[in-house]
């Protein structure tokens, strides 16, 4: 169960050796919203991946220049640009992985749910395109509110008859990246060694770091647990406030999304040891979607690691109970939106 986690963005030294064919296959990847604050650095980071043969950049504006710029990097992925709805089909045709950071980000004082009215419609339209042009692709949804946009995507795919719950992911990697960073700083650990699973969802109290399951094992006082939990839950707001109206996390998000995309591709490529936390359809609780550690494989989610919810501390158990009503509301809001539009 304890596979090596978070090794992404490292080219495997043994690529090409015998055993699993990791590093041998290449994939077509589309980034939707590629000209944005996240889209640009994310596209740069994944352009460095040896697992990508084609990188298709789609946006409603300003994407030609981004593609021209990136195409000069001497890494193997071929970069192409697609602008506006009329080019969405060509951007998506037969891709293996679709990454969606399209939509508006938060400004100070806003919750992720305040973005619903704009981003819900954007995600719905883009997922209709995915259903029509690359129904077998893995889908990484970054657009907030993730707690609702993932259920919207599921409903759209169901209505089109192509829903495979193993292939739809809400990207919560940034919560893990933040948890790892803050815990390592607090405890004086080597960053590279630290892994903190983060479960639940991706907004406020629905973000629940399982500090008791930190690897390597480390003791926290109740005060440290409270302080770290609250900081991890509010870390996005820390960035929104520091940017003072200029948007939300883009660079750390691009890093996290690139790590998650790389893990998805390593799973597709047959690497047998790829684990990440993600917000997926799940039966670990009575809610239809929940983030836990998942094992990634050739068809997407290979296994949901239900052990994440076992052996929790009293603090964590209470937090799971407390987050469920907000998460349930966000899921229902997404489902209602998608059904009303169908
Ligand atoms: P941004 O405004 O800088 O970029 C968004 C891009 O989406 C723009 O280039 C825009 O032209 C494009 N876009 C808008 N409508 C589109 C459509 N219909 N089709 C294709 N592209 C479209 O925003 P930023 O900072 O890149 O954030 C993007 C999203 O990611 C936001 O919803 C934000 O809340 C979310 N986010 C999610 C995080 C997570 O952990 N999952 C963390 C940080 C942000």
Bound molecules: 1,4-dihydronicotinamide adenine dinucleotide
- What is the C-alpha radius of gyration, as a whole number of Å? 19 Å
The beta-strand count equals 11
Separation of termini? 40 Å
Largest sheet: 6 strands, parallel
Shape: globular
SS-based structural class?
alpha/beta
Uncertain residue segments:
6-20
Strand residues, percent: 15-25%
Helix content: 40-55%
Helix segment tally: 9
Order of helices and strands: EHEHEHEHEHEHEEHHEEEH
| Overall mean pLDDT | 93
Strand order of the largest sheet: 3-2-1-4-5-6
EC number: 1.1.1.37
Subunit structure: Homodimer.
GO biological process, one term: tricarboxylic acid cycle
Family: Belongs to the LDH/MDH superfamily. MDH type 1 family.
Plain-language structure description:
There is one protein chain. The protein is an alpha/beta fold. Helix content is 40%, strand content 17%. The chain is built from nine helices and eleven strands. The protein has helices at residues 39-47, 63-70, 88-92, 116-133, 146-159, 173-187, 222-243, 251-268, 314-341, and strands spanning 27-32, 52-59, 78-83, 97-100, 138-141, 168-170, 198-200, 207-209, 274-281, 289-297, 300-304. The strands form three sheets. The protein has a six-stranded parallel β-sheet, sandwiched between helices. Helix 5 (146-159) crosses helix 9 (314-341). The longest helix is centred in the last third of the chain and has 28 residues, at 314-341. The radius of gyration is 19 Å and the shape is globular. The protein starts with 26 loop residues before the first strand and ends with a helix. The relative contact order is 0.15. Mean pLDDT is 93; it is low at 6-20. The structure holds 1,4-dihydronicotinamide adenine dinucleotide. The site of 1,4-dihydronicotinamide adenine dinucleotide (NAI) has 32 residues, from helix 4. Belongs to the LDH/MDH superfamily. MDH type 1 family. Residues 28-170 form the Lactate/malate dehydrogenase N-terminal domain.
């Amino acid at each position: 169960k304890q596979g090596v986690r978070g090794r992404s963005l490292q080219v495997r030294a043994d690529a090409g050796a015998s055993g699993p064919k990791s590093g041998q296959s290449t994939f077509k990847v589309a980034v939707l919203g590629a000209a944005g604050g996240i889209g640009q650095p994310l596209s740069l980071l994944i352009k460095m991946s040896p697992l990508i043969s084609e990188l298709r950049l789609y946006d409603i504006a300003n994407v030609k220049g981004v593609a021209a710029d990136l195409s000069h990097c001497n890494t193997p992925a071929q970069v192409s640009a697609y602008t506006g709805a009329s080019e969405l089909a060509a951007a998506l045709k037969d891709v293996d992985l679709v990454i969606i950071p399209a939509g508006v980000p938060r400004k100070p004082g806003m919750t992720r749910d305040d973005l619903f009215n704009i981003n819900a419609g954007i995600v719905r339209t883009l997922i209709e395109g995915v259903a029509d042009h690359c129904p077998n692709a893995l889908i990484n949804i970054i657009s907030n509110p993730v707690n609702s946009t993932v259920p919207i995507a599921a409903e759209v795919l169901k209505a089109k008859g192509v829903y495979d719950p193993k292939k739809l992911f809400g990207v919560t990697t940034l919560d893990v990246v933040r948890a790892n960073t803050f815990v390592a700083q607090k405890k004086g650990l080597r960053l590279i060694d630290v892994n903190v699973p983060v479960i639940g969802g991706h907004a406020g109290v629905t973000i629940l770091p399982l500090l008791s399951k930190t690897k390597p094992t480390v003791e926290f006082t109740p005060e440290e647990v409270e302080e770290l939990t609250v900081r991890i839950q509010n870390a996005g707001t820390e960035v929104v406030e520091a940017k003072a109206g200029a948007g939300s996390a883009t660079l750390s998000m691009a890093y996290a999304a690139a790590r998650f995309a790389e893990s998805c591709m390593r799973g597709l490529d047959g690497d047998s040891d790829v684990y990440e936390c993600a917000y997926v359809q799940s039966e670990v609780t009575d809610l239809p979607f929940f983030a836990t550690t998942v094992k990634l494989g050739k068809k997407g989610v290979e296994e949901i690691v239900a052990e994440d919810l076992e052996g929790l501390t009293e603090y964590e158990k209470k937090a799971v109970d407390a987050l469920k009503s907000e998460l349930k509301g966000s899921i229902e809001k997404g489902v209602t939106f998608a059904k009303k539009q169908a």
